Amino acid sequence: MMMMRLIPGAWGDEMRLSVEAATLLTPLAAAAMVPVLIGMAAVYPWVGDRSPSAFKLLWLSPVPFITRTLLRFGAQWWLGHRMRARRGQTVTAGAGVVLMPVLTSLVAVDWLMSLEPDFASSAFGLEFMQREVIIAFCVLLLLRLGMGREPRRLGVLGGLLLTLLLLSAYFLFLPFFVIWSSNLAPNVEWYARRWGTGWEAVAWTFGLLAGVPLLALLLARARKSASWLKPLSAAVILSSLLQLGWTVLPGRGGLAVLAFCASVVGLGLLGVALLPMALRHRVRARLPAEARR
């Protein structure tokens, strides 16, 4: 939404109301994090561990973890509110595109990378943010295609999806290349654990589910067709979710896999139910008072 303000164009004209509607679901996202905060000791190996360095002990402790999480959701809600109001948008967007990547990188380390405290990657935050953006874009593209008239400049949205898929491939490959070439044992072991006991099949699957849409979108016909973009967007969402599971689940047992699948399905169904309602709310809010009456 902030980038739409700073880089105006057809993509913003076509998806602005859908994106504004999605920001109304920020409290749902925050509520979904509450069980994690309550059960931190069951999720994160560093809770109660006194062996790491002084910096890790300070950084990876419950109070700073919860504080950074609250800051991230608080900033997301405040920025969404400011942008939906459509007053002072340029200043808000300029500040937000600096603030949100910083906060998102911090919580990427907290929420996911700290599941294995010995692993470190400077690109992890960017990869996390890119995954968030591509899932959000595909969901909102499906919402836009499923409600109302078809966008006039559909090829622009298809081209943007192609760009996001190219960025995804870059952010996936570059950390792997750097870590493997440096051959640092803890980081290489992180990849080694994900190439055995069936997880390599997950990697091939999410690679194909993103790779086939990437190749298809090289065709102008696919980029400009709603009948193509709908299944391609759905495939990219599934690919991103499998990639997320591949990142966090290896070595955690069957219960963790079941919990992951249940949370994805449950939150997904809530999103499917609530996003159209939120979009209709935003459409009514933007209509003139006479039209609402």
UniProtKB/TrEMBL annotation:
Q: Which organism is it from?
A: Sphingobium chungbukense
Keywords per UniProt: Membrane, Transmembrane, Transmembrane helix
Q: Which domain of life is it from?
A: Bacteria
The membrane-spanning stretches of this chain are 21-47, 59-79, 91-113, 119-143, 155-181, 201-220, 232-249, 255-279
Q: What is this protein called?
A: Uncharacterized protein
